[in-house]
Amino acid sequence: MEAHTSKSRTCSAPVPGSLSPKRRELDIERLANEQLDILVIGGGVTGVGCALDAAARGLSVGLVEQRDLASGTSSRSSKLLHGGLRYLESRDFALVREALHERGLLAKTVSPHLVRTVSFMIPLTRRFWQRIYFGAGVLLYDLLARTGRHPLAFHRHLGRRATLELAPGLKQSSIRGAIIYQDAQIDDARHTLAIARTACHHGASIVTSARVTGLLIETRNGSETVVGAKFRDLETDTDYECRATKVVNATGVWLDDIHDMACPAGLSVRAAKGVHLVVHRDCIDSESGIVLRTPRSVLFLIPWGDHWLIGTTDTEWDYDRAHPAASSADIDYILEHANAALQRQLTRADILGVYVGLRPLLDASDDDTTKLSREHAVAEPINGLVSIAGGKYTTYRVMAADAVDAAVVGLDKPVPPSVSHEVVLLGSDEWQHWSQQANALTQRSGLDRDIVERLLWRHGNRIVDVLEIAEHEPALATGIPGGSYIAAEVVHAARHEGALHLDDVLARRLRISIEDEQRGNLAAESVASLMARELHWSDQRKDEEVKRWYERVEAERAANAAPDDSTADSLRRRAADTRGLNDA
Ligand SMILES: Cc1cc2nc3c(=O)[nH]c(=O)nc-3n(C[C@H](O)[C@H](O)[C@H](O)COP(=O)(O)OP(=O)(O)OC[C@H]3O[C@@H](n4cnc5c(N)ncnc54)[C@H](O)[C@@H]3O)c2cc1C
Question: Which helix (H) or strand (E) holds 355?
């Protein structure tokens, strides 16, 4: 194997798992005409995980996603692969151990090119009891991780001086010492995309901008049975029916909507809102991430490339699930709790981006969302429909395997057990070799080493596909405004990564929407021009995409100044996304 790029596009090998516009057309045709084993609804991490799990077992699989891959919660998490130290307090030992096992598996085998180790510090402000209490928790956390593969470095106790050397930005007067431990982080949207492309490579049909509008229900052996779904291609406003032996409902916070199409729900979810702020790396002087206690939960200060992610909140959300909004109160809450520990106070002027996600929590009668279960559950509320709910990003693979295990019961052919623990995602093959190729690739491509390293982290060994585009057309090796991305990545996103709209690129294929003070406004015009050329948009369509983006940014900014959720929601709703979706 060689880090090699070809001059001629016509001679190049086909790109594996390419979610090209042509492939989308063929996949819609297939969904409309073929009887599938499994149809998955929802293109978040759980849904694409189900599609890959089933396809890798040799089943015929389709997946429909109403917007873009990871456009729901799966691009808006804290981006940690973790056991969740705080779940030890509620004695969820099995949940923590399972998640730590998954953390190791993803880092070592399944997706090493997307996983990074990150160290966190728990600052101690009281001399004895905190060190004993938190120390015991972190010790247990590390011991539980040792039962799985790929344990990370053991935690360390630091005195006051060592703590302030590592994190001079902490408020010095209150610091007594710290405990430092290791966890892992991942770019959630790119990881979800990598799973989808790997599923496609294994034969699954992945169709985005395709919304399920109803279920096909027939009476079989005297009982009502789901035998497929109706879906609408939102790009052409065309309706189709897809027939499948089993339908898997992996729609996160929309789970109950699908149930409402068929029957009274047997499983229900509640949406809990979590807000993150993004600030530049210079704003906080620390070499390590920081974990702070808050009265309700914890607040993470997470190093993220040239930025910090700071979050999160945890409150009930009853409004538009397509566009959850952060209010001024959410932002104040995060700033207040971060500033309680920091020497240099963060202000609103420091905030580059704000993003909001909805946790799909298994419903319980308890009113407080911080106490709802983070475990997952699988149910078949009506024959033929398997629903999967709850869980965490970290445990998506286990959730998917459990859902597919439930779906294959009654299939008229033998189905092997899940092999997803062995399926390496596209980009991660021979990663040990590729992770050493930054120098060679920098020399061959003529790009800056920083750019090559970042491309390697985002694309793994499929960096060759991006470099080939830039080599074929050198103008695409230049940067796009407002971020450290190159134009070839935009073309690659439209050509091979299933990006159909401007927000798919600005918010998920790249992360300009949260990394740049202008929230992507600076890049919108040039990214839209690159997409227009690739996807054959008219000038009018291109202008419309840019206009919608500006409206979205304006609506988000207005919501961020609103005093409460209800006002934030109504301000954010003023701008629907490019697919025109807003919850009724
Ligand atoms: C603030 C926050 C921080 C978090 N941090 C972490 C973390 O650090 N680590 C961790 O492990 N977990 C974390 N989580 C949890 C994790 O992000 C979620 O559990 C996970 O992303 C849920 O994925 P999902 O696929 O179930 O849902 P989603 O990603 O929401 O996917 C559901 C999809 O279904 C689609 N859909 C809905 N209705 C239809 C329809 N009718 N037709 C077609 N498609 C439809 C939606 O468009 C959506 O894309 C966090 C969650 C939040 C909110």
Answer: strand 351-362
By most ligand atoms within 8 Å of CB, the mutation choice from 253, 254, 388, 514 for ligand 1 is: 254
Domain ranges of the chain: 21-73+190-268+373-408, 115-183+271-368, 431-537
pLDDT score of 238: 98
Please give the model's pTM, rounded to 2 decimal places.
0.96
User: Which is more confidently placed, 373 or 129?
Assistant: 129
d(CA 157, CA 482): 40
Average pLDDT, integer, range 303-323 = 95
Mutate to test the pocket of ligand 1, among 63, 278, 376, 392 (most ligand atoms within 8 A of CB): 392
Specify the pLDDT at position 369: 52
For ligand 1, atom 27, the nearest C-alpha belongs to 252
Q: Counting atoms of ligand 1 from 1, which one is nearest the CA of 80?
A: 8
How many angstroms is it from 229 CA to the middle of ligand 1? Answer: 21
For residue 433, count other CB atoms closer than 10 A to its CB: 12
What was the pLDDT predicted at 9?
Answer: 44
Distance 252 CA to ligand 1 centre (A): 5
- 151 confidence band (pLDDT: 50, 70, 90): confident
How is domain 115-183+271-368 classified at the CATH fold level?
Answer: D-Amino Acid Oxidase; Chain A, domain 2 (3.30.9)
What integer is the mean pLDDT of 19-45? 98
What's residue 500's pLDDT? 98
Residue among 74, 115, 116 to mutate when testing ligand 1 (max atoms within 8 A of CB): 74
Q: Going by CATH, does the domain composed of 21-73+190-268+373-408 fall within 3.50.50.60? A: yes
Question: By the 8 A CB rule, do 275 and 326 touch?
Answer: yes
Of the candidate ranges 287-291, 351-355, 374-378, 522-526, the one whose mean pLDDT is the lowest: 374-378
Cβ-Cβ contacts under 8 Å for 75 (sequence gap 6 or more)? 188, 189, 192, 357, 507, 508
Are the beta carbons of 174 and 544 closer than 8 angstroms? no
451-507 pLDDT, tens digit per residue, is: 999 999 999 999 999 999 999 999 999 999 987 899 999 999 999 999 999 999 999
Domain 431-537 top-level CATH class: mainly alpha
Average pLDDT over residues 139-149: 84
* pLDDT confidence tier of residue 575, bands split at 50, 70 and 90: confident
Rounded to the nearest angstrom, the distance between the alpha carbon of 425 and the centre of ligand 1 is 20
In this chain, the answer to whether the domains covering 21-73+190-268+373-408 and 115-183+271-368 adopt an identical fold is no
Calculate ∠ Cα 380-383-387, nearest 5°.
Answer: 30
User: Which residues surround ligand 1 with Cβ inside 6 Å?
Assistant: 41-47, 64-67, 71-74, 76-80, 82, 211-212, 250-254, 274, 312, 357-360, 391-394
Q: Which atom of ligand 1 is nearest to the CA of 210?
A: 43
Ligand 1 center–CA 44 separation, angstroms = 5
